[in-house]
Amino acid sequence: MALLELEEVSKSYRTDGVTVEALRGVSLEVDAGEFVALVGRSGCGKTTLLNLAGAMDQPTAGEVRIAGVSTRRLNDAALARLRRTSVGFVFQSFQLLGTLTAVENVELPLLVAGQAGARRAALERLDWVGLADLANRYPHQLSGGQMQRVAIARALAASPRLILADEPTGNLDSATAESIVGLLGRIASEQGAAVLMATHSQEAAAACHRLIRLRDGRIEAIEETGRR
Ligand SMILES: Nc1ncnc2c1ncn2[C@@H]1O[C@H](COP(=O)(O)OP(=O)(O)O)[C@@H](O)[C@H]1O
Ligand SMILES: [Mg+2]
């Protein structure tokens, strides 16, 4: 089942009278259990695509469907609810809150959503990413790879079916990067989520099931890696 569908999606930004066409008619699907890489040089539209795929923004034209729900007619509150329940984001810079411990960072989205049992769920997620022992550390007491694991645990907090990662290994050394990519792959294979990861790393892209090459806002090629 396609958890993410983009149909002829275009996105242009207009600043100071200049229009930039960041995406030009992109169509793609990512299925449950699939781990897909989004590659292409800086400025080709990767972050724009992930933001649309995660209902952070609306396309200028075309349609985005997340778990079968079109984002087009949703108001801001409904988009926020869709993001909270269906999408987990992982960023290059981790984006943890420095004043909160690891477990508090993971727990926060569940508390915001008013979910019962938030602490227990957060500890389970930390255990799943291999960080149960470090639950009470603050981000500055963790390595980059550990911080990204916490961020992944947070992305998994609400058990979303779609995980979007924007250059998640960009700030990590290659051995750590490999383990983070392995973890994202397990989210697809063990939890059945659809995982879409923008990356500059050849190794990271090669670990995915499929890779989508973007160039100047268009899909240039879609390649199977043979890693299913
Ligand atoms: N908020 C924005 N306002 C104006 N232009 C933007 C904005 N976000 C991205 N762009 C432009 O859209 C194009 C694609 O950017 P982006 O999606 O960030 O690419 P990538 O993530 O592949 O580096 C670039 O030309 C970029 O300058
Ligand atoms: Mg980017």
Descriptive tags:
6-stranded mixed sheet; alpha/beta; 228 residues; Rossmann fold; single chain; 33% helix; binds magnesium ion; 4-stranded antiparallel sheet
Task: Provide a compact summary of the structure.
The protein is α/β, with parallel strands linked by helices and 228 residues long.
Topology:
Elements: E1 2-15, E2 18-31, E3 35-39, H1 46-53, E4 61-66, E5 69-70, H2 76-86, E6 87-91, H3 102-112, H4 118-128, H5 144-155, E7 162-166, H6 174-191, E8 194-198, H7 202-206, E9 210-215, E10 218-224
Parallel strand pairs: 3-8, 3-9, 6-7, 7-8
Antiparallel strand pairs: 1-2, 1-4, 4-5, 9-10
The structure holds adenosine-5'-diphosphate and magnesium ion.
Adenosine-5'-diphosphate binds next to strand 1, strand 2 and helix 1.
Structure overview:
The structure is a single chain. The longest helix has 18 residues, at 174-191. This protein has 228 residues and is an alpha/beta fold. It has a domain at 2-95 and 161-224: P-loop containing nucleotide triphosphate hydrolases (Rossmann fold), CATH 3.40.50.300. α3 packs parallel to α5 and α4 crosses α5 (144-155). It is built from 7 helices and 10 strands. A hairpin with a 2-residue loop joins β1 and β2 (18-31). Bound molecules: adenosine-5'-diphosphate and magnesium ion. The site of magnesium ion has 3 residues, from α1.
